[in-house]
Design brief:
3 domains, Four Helix Bundle (Hemerythrin (Met), subunit A), about 425 residues, 4-stranded parallel sheet, Rossmann fold, alpha/beta, 4-stranded antiparallel sheet, binds zinc ion
């Protein structure tokens, strides 16, 4: 049975979705005002693997990840570039989608944009005010955290601790320093009419409302980066508890952060490495391998040496697979059945809270066996097993073996056999150029 570490309980739990075979999953997506950096790529890769694995186990997964296209940073950048917010966010949404695909991830089933849900957000905020969970001030609307029990339940902080960390607020009308903004009155940049005057919704409300509107029930998995636990996820939970009187999600999954060269990536220190730059220099699947070969809850200290190391490892994987594929093609062996013990071992490891680093250990063992395997039918089974697993991880190398290459390979073998070394060398060079030597 699949076991998942639930941030809410801080325990590994048996995974039992609300409806037997159906899984509703929501992952917080990007704020689209710039190209994604390496840290953003981690949830994009990991939750894609989660969806693929759940589908492999037979679940019908509905995977939703939002696009935050209303935000102060968007307004600032659009203003600086002298373009509309929509032009800016359409461009970066497209770039995000391209990057997701380049990283070997499928797109989520739905990518709702915050701007498409503003009417519902206004309705939702209005309801929160009417039921006493939110209140209006001259600057907008705040959520009243005292209106829900258990505020701090996810990040495991109590009210006293939470209040200690709060800086002196400029808004004297706030009842409690922890109350958070769900509507900001403003006429600057993109804004919408509301009963409280023109303005825009807060980020925490965007996700809570999209969840409510799309799923209308407690979802199974809510995911995101670990830096979103507080305040974002805590505030999503508080609004859902107040508005819908149920929890937002049964399982909370958080991926660890990615540090570049030991220092936490931050714009202020200017060491952000963008995915688009990385992908110009390295193979996307090698980067994906680096990402998933670290347990998802652990931080990654990204260095260029590490990237080089994983590029080499990925080359090794590719070489073994291509060699086996060539052997099987030359012998006309059907590749269709998997090796059941390998698949069983894979499932057992993945079921332990997606222990992908241990899956990779298994893969390396199977590749070693493949290099030694004399029985081509067993080789075919091992090949198909590795392919099945790497497809779920999203790192199966892409290659096609053309008939022409096969003919060339046979000629090379023949030339060697006949000790025609000059011809053999020529053919070898050509095969090497095609990547089959
Ligand atoms: Zn969110």
């Amino acid at each position: 049975m699949l076991k998942i570490y639930n941030t809410m309980s801080q325990n590994i739990e048996n995974f039992k979705p609300h409806n037997k075979n159906k899984v509703n999953m929501y992952v917080c997506g990007p704020t689209v005002y710039g190209d994604i950096h390496l840290g953003n790529a981690r949830p994009v890769i990991f939750f894609d693997v989660v969806k693929r694995y759940l589908s492999f186990l037979g679940y019908d997964v509905r995977f939703v990840s939002n696009i935050t296209d209303i935000d102060d940073k968007i307004i600032e950048k659009a203003k600086a570039l002298k373009i509309s917010e929509k032009e800016l966010t359409d461009d970066y949404t497209k770039r995000f989608i391209d990057m997701t695909l380049s990283l070997g991830s499928y797109l989520p089933d739905e990518l709702p944009k915050a701007t498409e849900f503003v009417d519902y957000m206004i309705e939702y905020i209005d309801q929160l005010i009417k039921q006493g969970s939110a209140y209006q001030t001259s600057s907008g609307v705040y959520f009243r955290v005292d209106s829900v029990n258990d505020y701090g339940i996810l990040s495991k902080q109590n009210m006293d601790e939470l209040n200690e960390g709060v800086r002196v607020d400029l808004d004297q009308e706030k009842e409690n320093p922890r109350d958070f903004s769900i509507w900001k009155n403003t006429t600057e940049g993109l804004n919408y009419d509301s009963p409280w005057g023109p303005g825009r919704p807060g980020w925490h409300t965007e996700c809570a409302v999209m969840n409510h509107k799309i799923f209308s029930t407690e979802i199974d998995i809510h995911g995101g980066g670990s830096d979103l636990k507080f305040p974002h996820h805590e505030n999503e939970i508080a609004q859902t508890m107040a508005h819908d009187h149920h929890h937002l999600a049964k399982y909370w999954m958080h991926v660890g952060r990615l540090n570049v060269d030991e220092v936490k990536m931050s714009k202020s220190i200017g060491n952000i490495t963008l995915v688009k730059d990385l992908l110009e220099a390295y193979e996307p699947y090698a980067f994906r391998l680096l990402m998933i070969n670290h347990h998802y809850r652990q931080p990654i200290n990204y260095t260029h040496d590490l990237m080089i190391q994983f590029s080499k490892e990925y080359d090794k994987i590719k070489r073994t697979l291509k060699k086996a594929f060539l052997t099987l093609s030359l012998e006309n062996i059907d590749i269709k059945d998997t090796d059941q013990p390998t698949i069983d071992a894979f499932i057992e490891i993945m079921n332990q809270d997606f222990n992908i680093p241990n899956v990779m250990t298994l893969i390396y063992e199977v590749l070693k066996q493949m290099n030694k395997e004399k029985d081509n039918h067993q080789l075919a089974k091992l090949y198909q097993s590795v392919k099945t697993i790497l497809d779920i991880l999203g790192i199966m190398p892409l290659y096609t073996l053309e008939d022409e290459t096969l003919v060339m390979y046979r000629k090379w073998e023949e030339a060697r056999h006949q000790k025609n070394f000059q011809l053999a060398d020529q053919l070898r060079d050509q095969l090497s150029k095609r990547g089959w030597m």
